[in-house]
Amino acid sequence: MIRVVTLDPHEPVAVQRLCRLLYQAFGVGCDSAGDMELPAGLTAPFDAGALVRAAPAPKLYADDRVLYLTARPLQERTLVSGTAPTHGFAQYGGQRALITTVAIKDLEASLKLVARHAMHQLGHCWDLHHCLDPRCAMYPPWTPSFGAGDAIFDTFCREKSEQKIRLAKS
Fold first, then answer.
1. Where residue 134 falls among pLDDT bands split at 50, 70, 90?
2. CB atoms closer than 10 angstroms to residue 102
């Protein structure tokens, strides 16, 4: 089960549509776990890893994943090629992921991009690595063409995510 937690106000209808897209992508249940307060002591732009570790969690079972949505900026990260905006963060192989909608003016209109970022971060929670196929949600999100893609996995990433999800349930 994927639990979507909003750390800032988001349109409930758009959050429900995001849950439906994530259900279609992963084939596991997805529901809104409601709003939760941002952890005290953190300031924007947030260190994404620190925010994920400090954020309150809804009731989770061993095979559940939680996706936090925030409308606040995340600190840029340093890459070999320079700095890149941070759209999200995931505990690789863990239970928690985060995405920001700071650059999104209308969540409903940009749902495909938000779902692509959510799939990418949740894919990392299920041990998926970056993919070389620019059509796949696991393509590196700091690339200019990431936003042009659909909220889908390529065949390899879909099969690997299904395998990881089946293993998590056993």
1. very high
2. 16
The pTM of the whole model exceeds 0.85: yes
User: Domains in the chain: how many in total?
Assistant: 1
* Helix 111-125 × helix 12-26 angle, to 10°: 50
Q: What is the pLDDT of residues 36-82, one digit of tens each?
A: 999 888 888 999 999 999 999 888 888 899 999 999 999 998 878 88
Strands of 11-165 (E only): list them: 30-35, 65-70, 77-79, 82-84, 88-90, 96-100
Q: What CATH number corresponds to the domain at position 33?
A: 3.40.390.10
Contact 154, 25 (CB under 8 A): no
Sequence-separated (6 or more) residues with CB below 8 Å from residue 47:
74, 75
Range of 138's domain?
Answer: 2-169
Side-chain-side CA neighbours of 36 within 13 Å: the count stands at: 20
- Could you tell me the maximum CA-CA distance found in the chain, to the nearest angstrom? 42
CB atoms within 10 A of CB 72: 16
Token couple for 62: 């061993």
Is the CA virtual torsion 79, 7, 50, 89 positive or negative?
negative
